[in-house]
Specification:
mainly alpha
């Protein structure tokens, strides 16, 4: 009976389709995360104060190791990006809003969908897409989710995959437009730039 929860349910989609959707969703979330870091890098290039003010008190000794101010700034910016890359989405969202005035998410449902996509990516990468307590804790903010049982594989249906990727795309395009306007940076959208 314990092994039964690891077997596909009657009428469930094929294991092959599940794996394909897992791979595609993982890649989409990783591209989304990369976009956010690229956007921050671009913002830091015009808003150097976001990097320098926070870092200069902690890093005066290291400054002497660099040949010029530009190299030192790049070091600080990369370190700041690395710190932000490991923050939860809620903290990254707050950082964008407070530091730059850019709201990443137009609607709370967009935020919830990105939380779900991100946590599904983590579940895929670290637990074979099987629901665990950490996943349940982290998706607690998501209101629109199916009943979840520990140990079961989270079904990433074609519909769910398309929905989550659609939201990721929407967030990228709308955040890009807002960041371009608010921070006076070029848009990264290859279609409209």
């Amino acid at each position: 009976e314990a092994a039964a929860k690891y077997q596909p349910k009657a009428g469930a989609m094929s294991l092959g389709r599940q794996v394909i959707n897992e791979l595609l969703l993982t890649r989409s979330v990783e591209s989304f995360d990369l976009y956010l870091l690229q956007l921050l890098r671009l913002i830091f290039s015009v808003r150097t104060d976001l990097v320098i003010e926070e870092e200069k008190l902690r890093d005066e000794v290291t400054k002497t190791k660099f040949k010029d101010a530009d190299e030192y700034f790049l070091h600080l910016a990369e370190r700041k990006l690395n710190q932000l890359a490991y923050k939860p989405l809620s903290e990254l969202r707050a950082y964008f809003r407070i530091s730059t005035g850019v709201e990443l998410f137009e609607r709370e449902t967009d935020y919830e969908a990105v939380v779900l996509a991100t946590q599904l990516r983590n579940l895929i990468a670290h637990n074979d897409c099987r629901i665990n307590e950490l996943f349940l804790k982290r998706v607690d903010v998501v209101r629109d989710k199916p009943a979840l049982n520990l140990g079961e594989r989270y079904a990433i249906t074609d519909w769910l995959f398309r929905r989550l990727v659609g939201v990721l795309d929407h967030v990228v395009f709308t955040a890009d437009e807002r960041a371009a306007q608010i921070c006076n940076i070029p848009t990264m959208n290859r279609i409209t730039s």
